[in-house]
Amino acid sequence: MKFRIIWFRKAHRYLGLSIGVQLLFWTISGFFFAWNSIDEVHGDTFVAHQHPAFALDTLHVVPVSTAIAALQQNVPTVRRVKAVSLREVMREPMYELEYEMQQGKDIEDHATTHFALVHAMRGEFRPPLTAKDAQAVAEADFAHEAQVVSVERVDSVTPSSEYREKPLPAYRITFDHESGTHLYVSAERGIVTARRNAQWRVWDFLWMFHILDFQTRDNIHNWVLRGFSAFGVITVLSGFLLWGMTTPLLRRKRGAHKLSHTTQAKQRPLQKKDLHRLLF
C-alpha cells in the first residue's frame, strides 16, 4: 500500500508539472475573457451612429436583373450570382451582389467568391473603392475625433493575421487614438469589415494560447488542445485518488475494517478447508 501511494504521488507530481504551465495560461486567459467586455474587444463601442440617408420603402430602384446585367457587362468572368442585397454605401443606395468568379477555362476549375456594387436607382456598376473612398468610410464609422495616420491597401494576409478570413482586397485605416484602432474597409463591399484595437490584440494573443492553435488561432479541434485537455483531466483525477489513499479518515476506516476481518478469522472455529490448507 505504501509503495502504491509513493507511485501515485510521483505520477501526480509529474503530471502536474507537465500540465501546470498550460493550466496557468488557461486561468490567465479565462480571467481576461471574463473581466473584459466583448463589445469593447470587438470595437463596437467606437462605432458612430449614422442616420439612414434614405427610406427603403419609398425608394424607386431598378430591377435586380438590371443590376446583374451591369455586373456581367463589367465582369465577364462571372460564373453565377449567389446573393443580392440592398443597402447604403457612402450615403448612396446600392445593390451588393455576391458572385463566383471563374478562375480557369474549364467549368470544374476553382471559383472564388467576390462582391460588386451596382447603384440601385441608376443601375450603374460601381468600381471598387479607392483609398480616398475607404478613408471616408472609416472616418464616418469611427465615433471619436482622431486623425488618420495611414491608409494601406491589403491584398493578402497570413493565416494568423488580425484580418484573417475577411474579404480581400481591403484597406487598413490606422487612427491616431489611444485605443490603437485599425479599421478595415472592403474595397468591393464598401463597408467596414473588421475593427481591431489593442484590447482585441491582447484577446487574440491569449485566445491563441487558450486553444493552442498557433497558426490560424481559430481551430478549437486541434490535437494539441485535445491532448492537454486529456492530461488535465487525468491530473485532476489522480489528485482525487491520491487524496483518497492518503487522507487519515479513510485510512483509519480501512485499518478498522482489516482489524475486524482479522479478529473474525481468529474467533472462527477451525474448519475442514483450513485443516486441508495446513496439511497440504
Written account of the structure:
It is a single chain. With 280 residues, this protein is an alpha+beta fold. Helices cover 45% and strands 20% of the residues. The chain has eight helices and eight strands, in the order αααββββαββββαααα. Strands 1-2-3-4 form a four-stranded antiparallel beta sheet.
Question: Summarize this, please?
Answer:
The protein contains eight helices and eight strands. The protein is of the alpha+beta class.
Using brief descriptors, characterize the structure shown.
single chain; 280 residues; alpha+beta; 4-stranded antiparallel beta sheet
In terms of topology, how is this protein built?
Layout: H1 2-35, H2 38-42, H3 64-74, E1 78-89, E2 92-102, E3 111-119, E4 125-126, H4 131-141, E5 148-154, E6 170-175, E7 182-186, E8 192-196, H5 198-211, H6 223-246, H7 248-267, H8 272-279
Antiparallel strand pairs: 1-2, 2-3, 3-4, 5-6, 6-7, 7-8
Helix pairs in contact: 1-5, 1-6
